[in-house]
Design goal:
Elements (H helix, E strand, L loop, with lengths): L9 E6 L6 H14 L8 E3 L5 E3 L19 H5 L9 E6 L10 H19 L3 H4 L8 E3 H4 L12 H15 L17
Parallel strand pairs: 1-4, 1-5, 2-4
Antiparallel strand pairs: 2-3
Helix pairs in contact: 3-6
Length: about 190
């Protein structure tokens, strides 16, 4: 259960070790992972075709951002013993088993989603949390778990800077429309 007094202050990007469509990811997070003894899920997923699905409601804490003492991430240090699942929203990206290989439409959909999440969930509490739209607050899972997840999300630093710049561009309009998650039949 997510502590009521903790506010979202970051977004963590993840990548799958395979898979190419959002339906497969939905089935995985919808129970297949638990059947294989690997529970957990990010809040959202973005398919290679740019479709978005939500897996965990934003009022709940995901089981996604394993972190390690070897992490050098500023927010891990700032938050001490508090697990990153309590303060970071997660977005999973399907990579079709090519680490770091995201499609252009996938990057665009993810950046729009991140901008909307920033505007609606993080920015309203930034005065309290100190959140700023930068590399300390847009993380990759490998920033939290450099030993066990060294390739998650497999984005280079120039790619991360370009992603953050695109999120900033999406924030330029006065009001962002909520990205519509695709209706996914997870039972199929």
């Amino acid at each position: 259960v997510r502590p009521a007094d903790v506010k979202w202050e970051a977004i963590v990007l993840h990548t799958t070790a395979g898979g190419s469509d959002i339906e497969t990811l939905g089935r995985w997070f919808g129970g297949e992972n638990q059947r294989q003894g690997m529970p957990g899920s990010t809040h959202y997923g973005v398919g290679r075709d740019g479709r978005i699905a939500q897996f965990v409601p934003l009022d709940q804490q995901p089981i996604a951002h394993g972190q390690e003492s070897a992490s050098l991430a500023k927010l891990v240090k700032d938050n001490g013993a508090l697990n990153a699942n309590a303060w970071a929203i997660g977005i999973e990206h399907l990579d079709a088993n090519h680490p770091g290989d995201w499609t252009d439409v996938q990057v665009e959909a993810s950046a729009q989603l991140a901008a909307w999440l920033w505007e609606t969930e993080i920015a309203p509490h930034a005065e309290r949390t100190g959140a700023t739209l930068d590399r300390d607050h847009i993380l990759q899972h490998k920033d939290l778990a450099p030993i066990s997840r060294p390739r998650c999300a497999s984005r280079s630093e120039p790619q991360m800077q370009a992603y953050i710049a695109r999120v900033w561009e999406w924030l330029t309009p006065a009001q962002l429309p909520e990205p519509a998650p695709a209706p996914i039949d997870w039972q199929a």
